Amino acid sequence: MKPIRTNYIIGFALALCAGAAIPFLIGSIQPGEPHSIKSEVPYCVTPPSVPEEAVFDGKTIDLRRYDRHERMDREMMAFTYMHSTTMLMLKRANRYFPVIEPILKANGIPDDFKYLMVIESSLNPIARSPSGAAGLWQIMPATGREFGLEVNDNVDERYNIRKATMAACDYFKQAYAKYGDWISVSAAYNAGQGRISTELDKQLADHAMDLWLVEETSRYMFRLLAAKEIFNNPQRYGFLLKREHLYPQIPYKEVIVDTEIANLDEYAQQNGITYAQLRDANPWLRAHSLKNKSGKRYVIHIPTQEGMNYNPKKTVPHNPKWVID
């Protein structure tokens, strides 16, 4: 009886799918043209519209020129049809944007640079690239140390959202002092200041967007603009999220530690959480102990009991544009 029931269900499902496809297939056949079928599948894929201009840090960037239009078109399609990744980024942004926006503002960095963080890590706080870049801002070890972050096998502050954001801001300010243009700063963040400066001089260009660069850097600036466009108009590009879909901010209590913690597993248990939850809240901790011979002050986040359970009703959308309810 079991095989018969299974075959029945499969047959019913196939018939249902076929029935659903008929209106699409019939609708694609024009009168008088019985063999002219526009689509052989019951759905339609269409490219998103490319805006004629984009605004970054209040400055308008003309996208009508063919090369800029096509580069923007590529990134718009990538974000639009990279469904699961883009959806995850929108969900995560509700948790992380409120943390980094005040830091950008306090440092005089355009708010639009939060989208650079989006394209760097897909808003995955524990992201690590094959080249060794880490954290939301994908900072390389040497760059992290240069801008004041502790980076070793025990503590890696590239994974500390607040500290890494402040380090990124210092880099942005340094680069802006050289270029006086925020888009060029973003290109330098990807390719390095030396490369961008050299190419601007060699190619006699005034703007990084007009440079002939390796594909990754050429795409980088347009990915930044495309991310902003998608994030500011998600519903236009097919991303419909309700309040309960967004990842809420997790309430923590802050504990200041200036001594060694020999066993972080026991420390977590003493604070009513698991080691996994401790690491999730403090990804900059990289081992099962915290070595601290110098007496440095660390701020450890301990999730509160209130924050342990997911409660969609209490989720406050960071950006109302993202929700449909």
How far do the termini sit from each other?
Answer: 46 Å
Question: Mean of the pLDDT scores?
Answer: 87
Tally of helical segments: 12
Q: Which radius of gyration do the C-alpha atoms yield?
A: 25 Å
Strand content: 5-15%
The H/E string reads: HEEHHHHHHHHEHHEH
Helix content: 40-55%
Description:
The chain has 325 residues and is mainly alpha-helical. It folds into three domains: 1-44, no CATH class; 53-242, Lysozyme, CATH 1.10.530.10; 249-309. It is 48% helix and 6% strand. It has twelve helices and four strands. Belongs to the transglycosylase Slt family. This is Lytic transglycosylase domain-containing protein. InterPro entries: Lysozyme-like_dom_sf, Transglyc_AS, Transglycosylase_SLT_dom_1. Residues 105-202 form the Transglycosylase SLT domain.
Secondary structure layout:
Layout: H1 2-27, E1 53-56, E2 59-62, H2 66-81, H3 83-106, H4 114-121, H5 141-146, H6 161-179, H7 182-191, H8 193-202, H9 215-232, E3 252-257, H10 264-270, H11 275-281, E4 298-303, H12 305-308
Helix pairs in contact: 2-9, 3-6, 4-9, 6-7, 7-8, 7-9
Q: What would a concise description of this structure say?
A:
This protein has twelve helices and four strands, in the order αββααααααααβααβα. The chain folds into three domains: 1-44, no CATH class; 53-242, Lysozyme; 249-309.
